[in-house]
Write a structure and sequence with these properties.
heterodimer; A: about 110 residues; mainly beta; about 55% strand; B: about 120 residues; 7-stranded mixed sheet
Chain lengths: ~110, ~120
């Protein structure tokens, strides 16, 4: 069974702080996706990284795919209350997506 | 554009009852899947389908059945509900293609409680 471990499980920070969420596995994935989920809604895709070592930026969010394509990180600069939510990483393997347990982020104003 | 539509949004069942969770997508996606989401465990794959007439088991298939008679619909059946099946269920669809192009579109979820 392929596993994706996310850390931390929960993060509570003040507005304006920076944070990093990690997604690690012993398995190689063809791509790594990051989703954001709000209460009562389904996850929504933020970004997909495909190439080992790839870095993608989405406004204040920076996503990195490890060189060996086994791990990824999400860095948020100057967090805002609107960033509050559950962040999920998902590894693509064949036609399946394997999800991590998620990181609950709470940004206080 | 409706995307992925799940019904019902909430459901309470008694132990032993059966029911079907409905899922429909209007994006002509080949791939559809069902997940359950439990606290601290992320999304776990129950069953998936790569096209009409083709289904396969995921990580946690026991107690659930699926069928795919059309591209649009992918219902999930609980055969005899158990309290362990209390969860939030998500249906998702995506295109099949090269790695990195399989963005999953999710429905809003069905919150199921089995008493």
């Amino acid at each position: 069974t392929q596993l994706l471990e996310q850390s931390p499980q929960f993060l509570s920070i003040q507005e304006g702080e920076n944070l990093t969420v990690y997604c690690n596995s012993s398995s190689v994935f063809s791509s790594l996706q990051w989703y954001r989920q709000e209460p009562g809604e389904g996850p929504v895709l933020l970004v997909t990284v495909v190439t080992g070592g790839e870095v993608k930026k989405l406004k204040r969010l920076t996503f990195q795919f490890g060189d060996a394509r086994k791990d990824s990180s999400l860095h948020i600069t100057a967090a805002q209350p609107g960033d509050t939510g559950l962040y999920l990483c998902a590894g693509e393997s064949g036609n399946k997506l394997v999800f991590g347990a998620g990181t609950i982020l709470r940004v206080k104003s | 554009n409706a995307g992925v539509t799940q019904t019902p949004k909430f459901q309470v069942l008694k132990t032993g009852q059966s029911m079907t969770l409905q899922c429909a997508q209007d994006m002509n996606h080949e791939y559809m899947s069902w997940y359950r989401q439990d606290p601290g465990m992320g999304l776990r794959l129950i069953h998936y389908s790569v096209g009409a007439g083709i289904t396969d088991q995921g990580e946690v298939p026991n107690g659930y059945n699926v069928s795919r008679s059309t591209t649009e619909d992918f219902p999930l059946r609980l055969l005899s509900a158990a309290p362990s099946q209390t969860s939030v269920y998500f249906c998702a669809s995506s295109l099949l293609g090269v790695p990195g192009t399989t963005e999953a579109f999710f429905g809003q979820g069905t919150r199921l409680t089995v008493v």
